[in-house]
Amino acid sequence: PSLSEERDIIRKRSVMLNLHNLQMPFSNTWKYGILALAILLLLVALTILTCQICQLQKHNRTRREKRCHSRGWVRIKAANGIWGKKMPPLLHDTTKQSNADVEELQTELNDPSPCLISSSSRTEDLSSVSSHLGPLPCSRGTLKFSLLYFRERCDLLLTGLEAWGLPRHGCAESTIRVRLLRQVPSHIPGLQCMVQEWQSQVVKNCNRQAFGDHFVFSLQDAEVEKSTLKLEVQRFDKYSRKTVLGEVRVTLSELKASQSLVLCKELQKTTKDIVGEVLVSLKCLPISQRIEVGLLKAKTTSPGRTAEKNVYARIEVFCGRHREKHQKSRPRAHTPLIIFNETFLFHMPEPAAWDCTVLVSIYEVDSDSRHLIGQATLGKRRANEAADHWDLMIKSIQQPVAKWHPLLI
User: Fold this and answer.
1) What residues are paired with 77 via a beta bridge?
2) Domains and CATH numbers, the chain
3) How far apart, in whole angstroms, are the C-alpha atoms of residue 218 and residue 192?
4) N or C terminus of the chain: which is more exposed, having fewer CB within 10 Å?
5) What is the three-class DSSP state of 326?
6) Angstrom distances, CA of residue 136 to CA of 125, 164, 244
7) Distance (Å, whole) CA 232 – CA 248
8) Ranges of the chain with pLDDT below 70
9) Cβ atoms 147, 255 nearer than 8 A
10) If you write DSSP's letter for every residue of 92-160 in order, what string do you get?
11) What is the pLDDT of residue 306?
């Protein structure tokens, strides 16, 4: 090519190179700007979505609380047959005779007159105080109920179960376990037998929980002085784990025939009751790193005819965070003195780390369910006899050491 053509080619290349240098930074700036704007819009959308979810949850919580407060909701539940589903056959028979008594007690519970308070320092009605001031600091909650004893029919009627001031944790559900205990003369101090046991319906967490159940206990007039009513408030979380919030105990000697007693009592720390004893032997085998648990005998205080039912024992061993697989005994007839004579072997870690716990649970087997009779706990960190038994096992290598332990419930 000629010289002029070469100059035109060089000029075109320089122009194209200058245009390319101008376009590159301009395009990158636009790209980053659009990306930043998209991220900003996404954050705004997420913030709006979170606010809407929070408002929806708050609205649903308010609706649930209003629904719990309304008495019509409790009446609808009762009319749908919840009482009838929870009542055993004995309760069905007795409630036919006491429907008028229940209605009379319900009117007394709705009466704004003050009820009896367990604490002598408080003379005001807890129901009215809690609605204005809320629960007291370090308070476990308050339980309100009514008792009426019919001497002619030998029946004890429990109704009007209502609780407030319970600690609130999310969407937990609450229930009340009712046990009727009776003192038994024995060489063991505080020995009692569990006469009857009931479970109330489950109510979702709200400010004031009305359970809407009523229970009837068969109780002779001579047994009233030796009997105690234990009401235990339990809570279930979304994983169905049970937590005991507290208990209320009432000595039935305070009752008078054909006179209803309305009580408001604060929940106290729950305590165990002795319902029997079990003879357990422990044997230390350090060479094979095992422990031998021998279940020999058990004494129970269950009332009535129980020889037709069977019982079995469940042995569990915990060592720190390690838990051995549980083992069960063969079923035996439920007599006042149960003979097991069985041994169970559990693998243990090094002897220096033997800081373990042995849990012995005895269950009564029914046709379609099982019932816990009592539990005994043995270990190094247990109190009194349980710790002494564990120390004797450590000192007596390869020699079984047997000892009686109380069954608690």
Assistant:
1) none
2) 141-267 (2.60.40.150), 274-408 (2.60.40.150)
3) 17
4) N
5) coil
6) 14, 11, 19
7) 7
8) 1-2, 17-27, 64-138, 169-171, 238, 257-258, 304-307, 350-353, 383
9) yes
10) HHHHTTSHHHHHHHHHHHHS-S--EES-TT--S-HHHHHHHH-SPTT---EEEEEEEEETTTTEEEEEE
11) 62
C-alpha neighbours within 13 Å on the C-beta side of residue 369: 3
Contact 274, 408 (CB under 8 A): yes
Terminal C-alpha separation, the chain: 110
Alpha carbon separation from 49 to 36, 39, 53, 58, 132 (Å, rounded): 20, 15, 6, 14, 36
Q: In this predicted structure, what is the pLDDT of residue 49?
A: 92
The mean predicted confidence, pLDDT, of the chain is 78
Q: How far apart are CA 87 and CA 95, in angstroms?
A: 10
Please tell me the distance from the alpha carbon of residue 201 to that of residue 214, in angstroms, as a whole number. 10
CA distances from 237 to 157, 168, 170, 219, 353 (A): 30, 11, 8, 35, 34
In the 8-state DSSP scheme, what is residue 228? E
pLDDT per residue over 316-351, tens digit each?
998 877 888 999 999 999 998 999 999 999 988 766
pLDDT value for 84: 37
